[in-house]
Description:
The chain is an alpha/beta fold. It has 14 helices and 18 strands. The chain has three domains: 7-47 and 220-298 and 404-461, FAD/NAD(P)-binding domain; 109-209; 300-397, Polyamine Oxidase, Chain A, domain 2. It is 32% helix and 22% strand. Strands 1, 2, 9, 10, 11, 12 and 18 form a seven-stranded mixed sheet that branches. The protein starts with 6 loop residues before the first strand and ends with a helix. Bound molecules: flavin-adenine dinucleotide (FAD).
Amino acid sequence: MTDDAPRSSRAVVIGGGLAGITSALRLADAGLDVTLLEGRPRLGGLAFSFRRGELTVDNGQHVYLRCCTAYRWFLDRVDGARLAPLQNRLDVPVLDVGRPSGPRLGRLRRNALPVPFHLAAGLATYPHLSLAERAGVGRAALALGRLDPDDPALDAVDFASWLARHGQSPRTIEALWDLVGVATLNATAPNSSLALAAKVFKTGLLSEPGAADIGWASVPLGEVHDTLAGKALDSAGVRTELRTKASALTRTEDGGWIVDTGGERIEAETVVLAVPQRETHDLLPEGALDEPGRLLDIGTSPILNVHVVYDREVLRRPFFAALGSPVQWVFDRTDASGLTGPGQYLAVSQSAADEEIDLPVAELRGRYLPELERLLPAARGAGIRDFFVTRERTATFAPAPGVGRLRPGARTRLPGLCLAGAWTATGWPATMEGAVRSGFSAADAALRALGRSHEHPLQEAA
Ligand SMILES: Cc1cc2nc3c(=O)[nH]c(=O)nc-3n(C[C@H](O)[C@H](O)[C@H](O)COP(=O)(O)OP(=O)(O)OC[C@H]3O[C@@H](n4cnc5c(N)ncnc54)[C@H](O)[C@@H]3O)c2cc1C
């Protein structure tokens, strides 16, 4: 097809991350003719896999929680739920190696009691906090439960100040609030908006007993977010064009849209722009947002993953979190990666990694191998079959205080143009859940603009 003959399609979704895939599926499920454009040779955006020799490696460990109802809808929709199972009950081993008396293992667990008693027993036996600190955590959790994450006033406040005001010691912040918060928000408490922290802790810990049960893919992420998602898009009739980057977006005189991809122009009645905030800013036609410059004020936060393949088993658990060490969370990736022969592949997941993201591999090796030996005695005599790092400099938007007022909703001021992406105003931090939710919202807004009635997928799934 040439530039002179635009191809007609009712909806074009730009960006094949979780947000774009969700929008495309929703629009196709509502009966629209949908084209999905993705600049890279694969779907899945920031949550993907690549080959390294015999290994299939995830760019970074991804987990979700039982309360992530939208991401769970996505898993079901692409027929991938069985590949990313949830724990039966929250159980997080936490190994503290910073104590003078020697390493100590504790667990963050829940029982089957109703909220908030489901966590009380686990907290009461959590050995990394004193009795007084544990009681203080209970009081702060109840106070957190009374906050409204949608209250704009909360967005301006940082989480650390709120925790300090509620009697949380630096140790409590390290051993509990940041242990969970850094991994879910990708920022430490001083750098997190209270609104986003309240969203995470309230939804994850206080909405229902099983809300914080953890799930993760037992296969490479790409199998779910690329292969299965691609199949679901195909069966829904979506035309998926990989290696196809949208370079311009223009409004036609009759109120439609032309998406330029360099080689081709595609006509659409509605466009969902599901690309990161900077790319959105560059593609947005004039008048789409009141203050488009705000998109550039949304900061980003990095995540580093350190990958180590040992010549033997050094960890008997599927994962653990560490205290008193630069190591944050360690996951066993052996089976998921397809590693053959003797050995074990561990991924060390380091969130809010601003200080380490640009360090040379040799320096990271010098730092992390001894730390892993400190945490895992069996690693001390083990040989290293492989060591490498993956760096995601713009892994998430920075959940800094004030970010809420910078995040636009799905609707723009231009009819038929909608925004999606984990960075849009979902109320969630940058997560797979937020991405899928944003995809729903953009598709809903697009369908509404076309005068289509539809049911919300979470209602359908319920
Ligand atoms: C290392 C790492 C670990 C993480 N861990 C977790 C976790 O444990 N749990 C969790 O819930 N979340 C986690 N996240 C966050 C989660 O991956 C993201 O929030 C989510 O995947 C974002 O999806 P998205 O669709 O909004 O955006 P993206 O994934 O950024 O998708 C945007 C897509 O648009 C494409 N694109 C850009 N410009 C164009 C263009 N002009 N034309 C066509 N296509 C274009 C891009 O190639 C990309 O595929 C992690 C992220 C990283 C990087």
